[in-house]
Amino acid sequence: MLAEDVAWQIQDHPFDVMTPILRRKSRIVVALLLVILVYLLVGLVPENNDVLWGFNYVHDHYDWSQQKQFYPVSEYTPLPTGQPRSLPSVQYAFKEDKSPEGVAREAVLESRCVEVKEAFVKSWKSYKNVAFGYDELLPVSGEGHDVDGFGGWGATLIDSLSTLWIMDLKDDFYEAAAAAVAIDYSKTRDTSINYFETTIRHLGGLLSAYDLSKETALLEKATELGDMLYMAYDTPNRMPGFWLNFQEAKAGKQVAGTRSPSAAAASSSLEFTRLTQLTGDNKYYDAINRVTQVLDEWQNKTNLPGMWPTYFDLERIELDSDSSFTLGASADSLYEYLPKAFAILGGLEPVYEKLYRGAMETIIDHLLFRPKTPDQANILFSGNVWVASEPRLSAQAQHLCCFAGGMFGLGGKLFQIPEHVTIGEKITKGCVWAYDALPAGIMPEVFNLLDCPTLDPCEWNQEEWEIVGNTKLKQGIKNVPDPRYLLRPEAIESVFLMYRMTGNSEYQEMAWRMFRMIRNATETDLAFSSIKSVKTVNTVRTDSMEVSTMRVCDLRRLIL
To answer: What is the pTM of this model?
Structure first.
């Protein structure tokens, strides 16, 4: 029948024509309803699955948002209100260079960009092919591995979401995002999880991926996880412990940690603040704000006023029971988050600037040191301090401390303290110096140096070096108690930040040199591995990739 004939019949005989059409439609609707009902009755659709925002979303079987609070909060502290401040620009005002030299330079940088992306893609493909859903890929043996206390929820999967997006690997991003929103955080073989690691890797990873992609399912999953992590604060004094024990949380038997790493206790400000900003639920901000208030109360009452000790007794809220102070392991991100928390709150919470300024003043006076070198290199490192009758500095450098270069630079820009940017550059260049100093071209996990009595240049003493130093190492380095390289990203992060803050292309060259040495020393058939020692050119791979897909591949950001 021609279309015009149908149109004519509908116009002149609407009931006769439309009746069979409507009957057919009704039968189709009824049939579809019956199919759906049978589908649900036989259980082909799991009760906790749903199709949300285009994803096959899996709701956590245990709803932590409905869990009773045994130590409830009567009134939540809200986010600070008001018009966000106009903060100083952090990034250098880059200008396009259309000269022949500038065009040639761009071509070089683009070729490097391709190499770095290829390194990441190699790692990601191997993870996807042999370890997808596990916490990490074992890059030598080619197996998937879950880390105790991480829940077995695929930490590398979540940790890689933002990098996949930044590197414009959108198909891989959406495949990984689909797997991420199908995670059931109430299912795990662990009875307890590391609250800190789960917050920074999973909650931070989901929130970052949401902020980049605006995929609402990722925020929904972050909120479910946030409700679980919020239970870490359901203790008599609302201070968190290091471990979140699920049964204790459900029974109201949790207590705050008596020897909590300070970083673990105080490094949730970005994630919990952002979750409140996105959901409007003040409980997350209230939780971390209580820890911030403890930092404020104790800043000038510790054994090294201005800083906080490496470990906290939060059950009694006593921060003067430990006499060790560091920017390294167990303390690092406490300090790193201060300027970042100020920025994410739009400068509306002044306590973070106060904490930053006080801490940096003490760090400059007591922790930073200038190494003795024959050429009087204008570089700095951060050491460790033990307080007995007076502060005592150990000139020991940690790879973890390399984040401090970027931290000083960011704080210097945000709070308009130019000398802090200069200090940040010296710390960053110190880490690059350490990369160049070892045979593998990579900075070790821990090493000791000869140090000057002040931050000013000091005279080189060859006799002293020959007595206390290892003459097989670069002059200035005494010994290397931990020569491993664990694919640490901290030095790279600071080089990136310093390039973006200063516009100095010298940092791009440093980064490229570092990347090539890391690739040469760590690459395997599948991906990249931690190595046993940087004291030898012929490095030994240890079959570990540290719960992320070659973090150092974020170097691409340096070259964009």
So the answer is: 0.90
